[in-house]
Amino acid sequence: MQAAENFRSKGMLLYSYSLVGLRAEADFLLWRISEALDDFQQMSLALLRTGLGKYITIPYSYVAMTKRSMYVDKHVHEGQEGRRGRIAPGESKYLFIYPFVKTRDWYRLPKEKRQEIMDEHIRIGHKFPSVKLNTTYSFGLDDQEFVLAFETDKPADFLDLVMELRETESSRYTLRDTPIFTCIKKPLEALLNEL
User: Fold this and answer.
1) What is the pTM of this model?
2) Which residue, among 130, 185, 136, 115, has the nearest Cα to 161 in the 3D structure?
3) Which of 35, 101, 125, 183 places its Cα 20 to 30 Å from the Cα of 62?
4) What residue spans define the domains of the chain?
5) Exposed, middle or buried, 9 (CB in 10 Å: 0-12/13-18/19+)?
6) Closest Cα to residue 74, out of 114, 125, 135, 115?
7) pLDDT tens, residue by residue, 17-68
8) Is the CATH code 3.30.70.1030 the one for domain 62-178?
9) Contacts of 116 (CB under 8 A, 6+ apart)
């Protein structure tokens, strides 16, 4: 735990979540946010050197960066100050996170058509104010194009949001949006004590 706290004291944001009983191949998730890519590697090495480190496997790891969406110029979203935007995790109990890849056909559409499709997508998202979306970009950094992280205290609202989005035109252009991780926020010490 001290290894993780050392990075928090250096400015890294660190949120811990339990996946016990929710995902077969993973028991916990660490959502790490930093402005320096090297911090993730250094923290991982420090964690692997701990007593728990010899028992840890890392079946999934996603790298992404913030960037202001080209589709939200008309919208005001919390956490989007500045040019690149910022991830500002809330205090929600649940986190739903997954990698996301669009089809190549999406990028062949004219920007105006993509904007029209995304306007519908955004409108539906606004119908569920209890669900906060954090979108990060992985182009060239990792295997997916985006990492989506939804926070809420109402899992049923997230389920309804995803069901409604499946019926939109934007869904036609989804190539991959799995694996999906359903996570319950827990303090790191409590999480480690459960393992």
Assistant:
1) 0.90
2) 130
3) 125
4) 1-60, 62-178
5) exposed
6) 115
7) 999 999 999 999 999 999 999 999 999 999 999 988 989 999 999 999 998 8
8) yes
9) none
